[in-house]
């Protein structure tokens, strides 16, 4: 059985129709770029390096996947930056936030184990097991863990979105974007950010509740009083 041929789209024949088409395309491009523009405006002077980020009590490290139970290379680079900041005395506590929605997948515990192997005391690490996406992690940092100011650590393609969303959630933030190899994962992450920017803008406007909020936890406050 032969499939019916779909009609080919036809370009407008009149000059007025062509002009309207061009205007529609340009409007679509502008709308698509608005979320990214918003992120750049909000985060304009909030990005730093591990060498010049202001001293802050708390660093937040966002999950970035596990490989056979261990942090992926991308996540390991984030954790390395957090450990470096701790050893340099620029932060006091690391809040690791990630996905633990399944028994066989636990980002925060894997992140904790990695940090302790790299010189961060277990008592100075706090786990957020419901950081299912960036907005959830930012809101929970503020509402559940009482974080008012933080250094955020992620890859460069993600850090602006993280800072913009945490700022909107009420966490005064500086972002450290760690280096990343320009492999297939990097290109995927950069492309994904184009679409994620739109969701981020919607999160900032409508401020939805996280998938799981729960009760307040004193982990960060307790960790700040623990011995170094």
Strand order of the largest sheet: 1-8-7-2-5-6
Biggest sheet character: 6 strands, parallel
How many domains is the backbone divided into? 1
CATH top level label: Alpha Beta
CA-CA gap between termini: 75 Å
Using the alpha-carbon principal axes, give the shape. globular
Number of strands: 8
Low-confidence stretches: 27-31
The SSE order reads HEEEEHEHEHEHEHH
Helices and strands: which structural class? alpha/beta
- State the helical fraction: 40-55%
CATH superfamily: HUPs
Protein name: DUF218 domain-containing protein
Domain DUF218: 57-174
Organism: Streptomyces regalis
InterPro entries: Cell_Envelope_Assoc, DUF218, Rossmann-like_a/b/a_fold
Give your account of this protein's structure.
- The chain is α/β, with parallel strands linked by helices and 228 residues long.
- The protein has a single domain, classed as Rossmann fold.
- 47% of the residues lie in helices and 15% in strands.
- It has helices spanning 15-42, 73-87, 107-117, 134-143, 156-169, 184-206, 219-225, and strands at 47-48, 58-62, 66-67, 70-71, 93-97, 125-128, 149-155, 172-178.
- Helix 1 (15-42) packs across helix 5, helix 1 (15-42) crosses helix 6 and helix 5 packs parallel to helix 6.
- The longest helix has 28 residues, at 15-42.
- The N and C termini lie far apart (75 Å).
- Mean pLDDT is 86; it is low at 27-31.
């Amino acid at each position: 059985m032969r499939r019916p041929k779909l009609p080919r789209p036809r370009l407008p024949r009149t000059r007025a129709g062509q002009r309207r088409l061009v205007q529609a395309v340009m409007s679509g491009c502008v709308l698509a770029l608005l979320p990214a523009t918003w992120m750049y405006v909000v985060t304009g002077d909030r990005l730093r390096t591990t060498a010049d980020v202001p001293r802050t009590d708390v660093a937040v490290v966002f999950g970035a996947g596990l490989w056979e139970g261990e942090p992926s290379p991308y996540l390991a680079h984030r954790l390395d930056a957090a450990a470096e900041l701790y050893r340099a005395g620029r932060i006091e506590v690391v809040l690791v936030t990630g996905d633990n929605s399944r028994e066989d997948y636990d980002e925060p515990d894997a992140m904790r184990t990695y940090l302790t192997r790299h010189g961060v005391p277990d008592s100075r690490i706090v786990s957020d097991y419901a950081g299912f996406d960036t907005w959830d992690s930012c809101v929970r940092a503020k509402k559940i863990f009482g974080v008012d100011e933080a250094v955020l650590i992620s890859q460069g393609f993600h850090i602006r979105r993280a800072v913009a969303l945490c700022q909107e959630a009420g966490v005064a933030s500086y972002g450290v974007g760690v280096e990343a190899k320009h492999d297939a994962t990097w290109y995927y992450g950069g492309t994904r950010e184009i679409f994620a920017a739109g969701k981020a803008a919607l999160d900032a406007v409508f401020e939805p509740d996280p998938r799981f909020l729960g009760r307040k936890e004193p982990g960060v406050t307790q960790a700040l009083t623990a011995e170094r």
